[in-house]
Model the fold of this input.
Amino acid sequence: MALLEVTDLSIQFGGLKAVDNFNLTIDEHELVGLIGPNGAGKTTVFNMLTGVYLPTEGDIKIDGESIVGKKPYEIVRCGAARTFQNIRLFKDLSVLDNIKIAYHHELNYSTFEGIFRLPRYWKDEKTAHENCLAFLDIFDMGDYASIQAKNLPYGKQRKLEIARALATKPKILMLDEPAAGMNPKETHELMDTIQLIRDKFDIAILLIEHDMHLVMGICERIVVLDYGKIIAKGTPEETRNNPDVIKVYLGE
Done:
């Protein structure tokens, strides 16, 4: 059984069918790229996979359980986390507090214990603080723990958003154009970060990206979308040489 199984997924906005009969399976620990020109429907697919949009047709399963109709936070609990094309951090909070918010599912004290600051509250908060600091150290961001997220360099903000998603302990991580706006040095660091995630957290990754160097360099399989339909699937080499893909990106 695949970790993620998407079957005949479609969505229609008025008279426009933005995604049509999209099918995809991702196994545990796989790294798959989803590419296509602007407006192809890639982010719309992500929005359906994460509960932002409700599909018109089709099904989405994580570990055999359908997640269609679930709210985004419920889908996170099922094991799917994502980042966004436009960075969405809690910018006025510290780097550490951004991680703590994602880590709240590990806290076991009750509302009553939290209000009155009972011993279980202090114990859980201390454990969370230590674990979140250790988590930041994995990404070489421990020195930034007390800095407001909005004051981080752009590349570090991207890394923090990925780290925050991982703090929810997902089975599959979905990255929506993580290299957008990055310079070549930051993109290279991002490639290293994604490889670190694979090695350290042993999870599956689905990646939307326009940077072909990044996609071809790290993805095991690539799915190509155009006008909401899949036009090609295969290895990076197969995708690179596919005539339909060349036509979409370069014209006749």
Q: What stands out?
A: The mean pLDDT is 93. The chain has two domains: 4-87+165-250, 93-147.
